[in-house]
Amino acid sequence: MLNQIERNLFLVNSEIKKTAKLYNVDSTKINLIAVSKKVASDRIIQAINANCKIFGENYVNEAFEKWPEIKAQYPEVKLHFIGHLQSNKTDAVVGLFDCIQTLDNEKLAKCLQKSILKINKNIDIFIQVNIGQESQKSGVDIASIKDFIDFSKYECGLNVSGLMCIPPVNESPVMYFALMKKIAQENNIKNLSMGMSSDYDEAIALGANFIRLGTAIFGERK
Fold it and tell me: I need a labelling partner for 129 at 20 to 30 A (CA). Which of 145, 171, 188, 218 fits?
């Protein structure tokens, strides 16, 4: 008998395939990130055993409580940092994570450059775009995105392979996802991380190849 996490993953993967077929997208190119903040290690391992390969964490300290041991046991699993990253935490995050999705300022880019050079680790970097131009949210302003991509790539030598966004909460995300797709195309960026448990169908339809799902997999967090 399937446990709840296995059932949830079965339903999510079925929905991804259905949506991909509807919009003529290759479902094998869509990367499911299981957002495991505030999720205990034993439940993360249930998801790994149900063939989940990528996880996302928001908080550095919490990640270090769980993930060194999990990664030692399951070295094939990839870990993405999807929370706000402080520049004084880059050494730790570069050491543990395989991808950072929340680069959003020049100071952080320079710190990441130093941390990556220290341990000579090839790590994927996504730039967070403030797609809704919300003052309370992190992310690079839309008007500055091309210059910031160039700065991160050519002045800091970062492997910028994607863009990430969190659209405004109380609005339809469709317009914002479409704008992200346009920005990615204009800047020759291949990866788009957008779409969460409530809107990943729309994100897939508009070009997301990384979707970040927490509640849909692990249920409501306490």
Answer: 218
At the fourth CATH level, which superfamily is domain 4-218?
Alanine racemase (3.20.20.10)
The one-letter amino acid code at 185 reads Q
Q: What is the pLDDT of residues 181-195, one digit of tens each?
A: 999 999 999 999 999
Q: Which residues, 6+ apart, have CB-to-CB distance to 179 below 8 Å? A: 131, 142
Which sign, positive or negative, has the C-alpha torsion 24, 166, 80, 66? negative
Q: Alpha-carbon distance 220 to 138, whole Å?
A: 24
Contacts of 12 (CB under 8 A, 6+ apart): 32, 213, 216, 217
State pLDDT tens for residues 86-144.
Answer: 999 999 999 999 999 999 999 999 999 999 999 999 899 999 999 999 888 999 999 99
7: Cα within 13 Å, side-chain hemisphere: 5
